[in-house]
Amino acid sequence: MKQETSLKRFLSRQSKFISKFSLPPYLIEGGIVCLIFLATVIINWRMIRDGLNINHEVDLKWHLTWIQHFSKQLSEGILYPRWLAGTNYGYGNPTFVFYPPLVYYLGSFLQLIRHLFFAVIDLII
User: If we measure between CA atoms, which residue out of 116, 108, 112, 47 comes closest to residue 80?
Assistant: First the structure.
């Protein structure tokens, strides 16, 4: 019985403290968004400052090539392309025997949206 009353007193003190210094929810959420944005800028500062150097430091050109061939094979009806037939000058490559393809499905979906967007723009114009 004694513990319940002390717990209630403790909680009432905490609620009075929180109510004195509480902020509106939109300020808290805005602060969280600002912190996430700041962390993103700090993490990617080198890329923001120097840009993407496709030829030297990153393997972005390989991933873009793989997305291109992956989406081409998806459009041909191959739902899980393990062998990218168009890479290596037409000889092919067993890329997705070793790499997980989830990111490339997402890239193919975004490429489809881009193609649909430009098709709609062409119809409007």
Answer: 108
Residue ranges of domains in the chain: 2-50, 60-124
**Residues 87/65, Cβ–Cβ less than 8 Å:** yes
Can you read off the two tokens belonging to residue 95? 């890329």
C-alpha to C-alpha distance for 5 and 123, rounded to whole angstroms: 72
At residue 110, the 3 state secondary structure works out as helix
Structure tokens at 55: 């030829």
pTM over 0.85: no
For 74-107, write each residue's pLDDT tens digit.
999 999 998 888 888 889 889 888 888 999 999 9
